[in-house]
């Protein structure tokens, strides 16, 4: 008996799937559809009449840990997390539990969010609201402001350096702040160079979706001194949150642990206890 297998054809290398690239593409495709309905001039009018932006920076810079609590129905890594039929009511619960700001995922294809969720949350609470999406076009920054956002997420891995700088400048011109997200040393350097005031270290690699909870502790010392440091993703317990704080996080961004818990306000309180 021979155990020689058929090696007649060399294995074809599978392209490494890049989830981030897919998410950016689908976010942009959705944007183009909305742009058809609401042209640039109209979104600018809507932005001008939106609720005035709230500056999140003073609260993030104050003593102690701040939490950004996320409205998240689903994710590419975990599928469905929670139905969240009433994002406004969840946002009120977060605010009562002591959240400093609320993140609303507005991406539809994998996160099941929408700009309507953001509008509803903005109307329900008086704390800052973050538009969490795959933003790479100025139009998305305008629509964030038109929907009432105070902050936008800018993911360094999804942007050229000039785009990052330009989108951050536009957010500032519209009275918003940018949460500039990084996952590698090079990306920290780019966020620092862009002069980002709020830098989030994502423990999750958005290209592969792998989580490494040590990423924040490893990269935090490289973040410019005057920036607010945000630890993002994979923080499931109070111990995880306290550990991030111990390693220098001024802010933690938490989704899954809150939306899947029975009592999000209570979970938040345990995160905020010393
Ligand atoms: O649900 P978690 O593991 O607590 O993670 C929240 C948040 O960090 C995560 O949703 C996130 C961080 N950066 C992103 C960029 C895009 C989409 C989602 C994210």
From TrEMBL:
Its EC number is 4.1.1.48. It catalyses: 1-(2-carboxyphenylamino)-1-deoxy-D-ribulose 5-phosphate + H(+) = (1S,2R)-1-C-(indol-3-yl)glycerol 3-phosphate + CO2 + H2O. Signal peptide: none annotated. PANTHER family: INDOLE-3-GLYCEROL-PHOSPHATE SYNTHASE, TRYPTOPHAN BIOSYNTHESIS PROTEIN. Pathway: Amino-acid biosynthesis; L-tryptophan biosynthesis; L-tryptophan from chorismate: step 4/5. Belongs to the TrpC family. One of its GO terms (molecular function) is phosphoribosylanthranilate isomerase activity. It holds the Pfam family IGPS. GO terms for biological process: L-tryptophan biosynthetic process. HAMAP family: IGPS_B. Keywords: Amino-acid biosynthesis, Aromatic amino acid biosynthesis, Decarboxylase, Lyase, Tryptophan biosynthesis. This is Indole-3-glycerol phosphate synthase. PROSITE patterns: IGPS. InterPro entries: Aldolase_TIM, Indole-3-glycerol_P_synth, Indole-3-glycerol_P_synth_dom, Indole-3-GlycerolPSynthase_CS, RibuloseP-bd_barrel. It is an enzyme of class 4 (lyase). Residues 23-270 form the Indole-3-glycerol phosphate synthase domain.
């Amino acid at each position: 008996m021979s155990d020689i297998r058929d090696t007649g054809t060399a294995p074809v290398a599978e392209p490494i799937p890049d989830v981030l690239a897919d998410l950016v593409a689908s976010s942009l495709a959705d944007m183009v559809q909305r742009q058809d309905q609401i042209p640039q001039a109209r979104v600018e009018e809507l932005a001008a009449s939106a609720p005035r932006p709230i500056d999140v920076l003073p609260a993030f810079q104050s003593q102690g840990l701040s939490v950004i609590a996320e409205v998240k129905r689903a994710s590419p890594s975990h599928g469905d997390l929670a139905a969240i039929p009433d994002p406004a009511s969840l946002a009120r619960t977060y605010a009562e539990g002591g959240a400093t700001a609320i993140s609303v995922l507005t991406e539809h294809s994998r996160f099941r969010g929408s700009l309507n969720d953001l509008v509803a949350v903005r109307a329900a609470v008086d704390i800052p609201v973050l538009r969490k999406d795959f933003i790479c076009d100025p139009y998305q920054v305008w629509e964030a402001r038109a929907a009432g956002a105070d902050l936008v997420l800018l993911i360094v891995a999804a942007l050229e350096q000039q785009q990052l700088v330009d989108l951050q400048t536009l957010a500032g011109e519209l009275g918003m702040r940018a949460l500039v997200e990084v996952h590698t040393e090079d990306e920290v350097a780019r966020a620092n160079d862009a002069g980002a005031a709020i830098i989030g270290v994502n423990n999750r690699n958005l290209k592969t979706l792998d989580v490494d909870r040590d990423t924040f502790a490893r990269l935090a010392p490289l973040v410019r001194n005057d920036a607010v440091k945000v630890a993002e993703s994979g923080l499931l317990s109070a111990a995880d949150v306290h550990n991030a704080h111990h390693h220098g996080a001024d802010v933690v961004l938490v989704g899954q642990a809150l939306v899947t818990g029975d009592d999000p306000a209570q979970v938040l309180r345990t995160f905020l206890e010393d």
